[in-house]
Amino acid sequence: MSCLSSIAVIGAGSWGTALSCALACKGHSVRLWAYESDVVESIRIHHENRIFLPGIIMPESIVVSQSLSSTLEGAGYVLTVMPSHVCRPLYEQMLPCLNPGMIFVSATKGIDGNRLMRMSEVIRSVVEARFVPRLTVLSGPSFAQEVARGDPTAVVVASGDSTAAQSVQEEFSSRTLRIYTSNDVTGVEIGGAVKNVIAIAAGVIEGLGLGHNPKAALITRGLAEITRLACACGARNETLAGLAGMGDLVLTCTGNLSRNRSVGFELGKGRNLPEIIGSMHAVAEGVNSTGATVALATRYGIEMPITRQVLRILQGQIAPREAIRELMERTLKNE
Fold first, then answer.
1. Under 8 Å between Cβ of 261 and 252
2. pLDDT the model gives residue 59
3. Which range marks the domain in which residue 145 is found?
4. For 232-263, what is each residue's pLDDT tens digit?
5. Rg (the chain; Cα; Å)
6. What is the phi/psi pair of residue 8, to 5°?
């Protein structure tokens, strides 16, 4: 299969690895940057990321490296899939290797806890020191393992630059990965970040042994919270009814592969957060995003009772069952 485009993937966690596999299978020249030396060794020797995506054999054409400069050299697309808390420092390291001809695709779902910035805002603030980046964001209901093994998946790419969004759509879409376009960057990013918070609450419900009724109520009212916040930040309501909103929320709240749901499940079982986090290889973005989401809601005067209770549970201020009781006993109102 002939190479189509040169794509640099920055971040070799499960999602970065899965996207690398999908893009390489389409025929793109893919270079994957990994922070961890054992990840590089695993991929080079076994063609498998045994640390973050075990069981998936990767195309041998993927070139893995710990060198940012060699990974970025000649890339037409820069797909960044790092944890949200290292987005800024990594882009600062990458900056000398970046150029205006690149199209940037942010697939990181989170909010900068210090500046309350979305990932596209973080990236733009760094790269604009040299040039105005052609920036897109990729989000939607997509477990890494299922994408890597070729299960049909639909996601959305959003950008204020319609040409850049269409370019990513055409280059990244395949027989198993369908990409829609949007110009609502804010809605897509807020939906992708805050659904992880609601997924923690969904896990708590399961950990407590509760049934389907509370899960359905949580997803519905959680979506209402996400939509209120996103629209206050400038998003469109209909975006949150789409793939990056409702779609991603339903997947993350109900799927067994959700890391954030797993954190909530263990909290519901009575384990403490440091113990849970210490036993995980990958990052559960919702843990870091919850405080930032509450702060952002406070800034805009948005009511987010579920999110606030998740933060109190994470901080050890309230027991999960008591948090649910308080939510159920709030002042009655219209839907």
1. yes
2. 97
3. 6-183
4. 999 999 999 999 999 999 999 999 999 999 99
5. 19
6. -100, 125
26-40 as b/e: b if 16+ CB within 10 A: bebbbbbbbbeeebb
CB 223 within 8 A of CB 259: no
195 part of the active site: yes
Residue 255 lies in a domain: yes
Q: Same structural domain for residues 177 and 36?
A: yes
- CA–CA separation, 283 and 109 (whole Å): 11
Are 10 and 81 contacting, i.e. CB atoms less than 8 angstroms apart?
yes
Number of domains in the chain: 2
Q: Which residues have C-beta within 8 Å of that of residue 279, sequence separation ≥ 6?
A: none
* One domain for residues 171 and 255: no
Largest CA distance in the chain: 62
Residues 80 and 152 sit within 8 Å (Cβ to Cβ): no
Pick the catalytic residue: 195, 215, 269, 333? 195
Do the domain assignments include residue 1?
A: no
CA 67/CA 10 separation, integer angstroms? 10
Q: What is the pLDDT of residue 4?
A: 61
Q: Kind and range of the H or E element at 332?
A: none
For residues 98 and 91, give the distance between their C-alpha atoms in angstroms, rounded to a whole number.
9
Given 134, 156, 183, the domain boundary residue is 183
If asked whether residues 146 and 34 sit together in one domain, one would say: yes
* Cβ proximity of 237 and 231 under 8 Å: yes
Quote the Cα angle for 239-194-79, to 5°. Answer: 75
Task: Give residue 267's Cα distance to chain centre.
Answer: 21
Residue carrying the six token digits 């882009």: 91
Q: What is the CATH number of the domain that holds 95?
A: 3.40.50.720
- The segments of the chain whose pLDDT lies below 70 read 1-4
Do 189 and 120 meet the contact criterion of CB atoms below 8 Å apart?
yes
| Contact criterion met (CB below 8 Å) for 139 and 147 | no
The H or E element containing residue 65 is: strand 63-65
- Asked if residue 148 and residue 43 are part of one domain, the reply reads yes
